[in-house]
C-alpha cells in the first residue's frame, strides 16, 4: 500500500484579510526577519504575484527577487509590498 502525501502550502489557506493579518502577526512576533519575509512571500503568492507587482509598482522579477529566501530587500520595497497586500504595520511597546 502506497500512501501519498501532498505538499503543504500555507498560501492555500490565506484566503481572507483576517487570516493574512494573523499569519503576518504571528511571523512578526517571532522576531525573525527571514521568517517574516517568508511569510510575506507566502501571502504574496496567495494573493497573486502579478497583482502585487502591479499594485506595488514593482516589476514581477524585482518582486520575486525581493521575496526570495535570503534576500535583504530595502524597507521601502517591503513597505510597498505590504501596502499592495492591504496590510499595515503598527507598533506597540514591548512589556
Strand content: under 5%
Would you count the extended β strands for me? Answer: 0
Shape field: globular
Oligomer: single chain
Main sheet attributes: strand count, strand direction, barrel closure: none
Number of helices: 5
Low-confidence stretches: none
Roughly how many Å is the radius of gyration? 14 Å
- List the helices and strands in order: HHHHH
Q: How far apart are the termini?
A: 53 Å
Q: What helical percentage do the residues reach?
A: 55-70%
In round numbers, the mean pLDDT is: 91
Explained architecture:
It is a single chain. By secondary structure, the chain is an all-alpha fold. Helices cover 57% and strands 0% of the residues. It has a domain at 29-85. The protein contains five helices and no strands. It starts with 16 loop residues before the first helix and ends in a 10-residue tail after the last helix. The model has no long low-confidence stretch (mean pLDDT 91).
